[in-house]
Recover the amino acids of this structure.
């Protein structure tokens, strides 16, 4: 295992936080995404993939909430999505995975933030609903957006 000082982005480490997994390609941290995202410089990330909690009142363990009031959940999502967009480099991409109910909001915000819609990828996972007795959605959404049209010049105005 590489020492943290030899990682490609040692400046992105938050003081006091230790990675839960680390390779020469980077590090994986467990914790609240907002303080970590806010510690990153503007336009410093090539790709964001987010699979946030779905706010289904699922029990994950001590200290993890998945039961926010709808407006609190949406406020939190808007905050981390805005930070993700801020840190994306020109030509960067973001993939957001969630239920269609929440993904509709995500897409609206990403459009407001000037991101370019690429695709709504429908992921069918009929046996994956985490809460017994609840109806499974017909699909989950994986939204794909980019910061600009650098890879798709035909889409420029």
């Amino acid at each position: 295992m590489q020492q943290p000082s030899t990682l490609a982005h040692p400046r992105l480490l938050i003081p006091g936080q230790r990675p839960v997994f680390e390779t020469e390609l980077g590090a994986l941290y467990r914790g609240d995404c907002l303080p970590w995202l806010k510690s990153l410089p503007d336009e410093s990330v090539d790709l964001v993939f987010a699979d946030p909690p779905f706010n289904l009142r699922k029990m994950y363990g001590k200290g993890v909430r998945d039961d926010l009031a709808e407006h609190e959940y949406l406020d939190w999502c808007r905050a981390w999505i805005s930070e993700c967009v801020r840190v994306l480099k020109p030509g960067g991409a973001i993939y957001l995975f969630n239920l269609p109910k929440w993904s509709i909001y995500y897409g609206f915000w990403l459009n407001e933030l000037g991101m370019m819609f690429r695709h709504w990828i429908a992921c069918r996972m009929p046996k994956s609903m985490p809460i017994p007795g609840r109806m499974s959605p017909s699909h989950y959404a994986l939204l794909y957006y980019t910061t600009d049209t650098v890879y798709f010049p035909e889409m420029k105005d």
Summary: Residues 70-87 form the longest helix (18 residues).
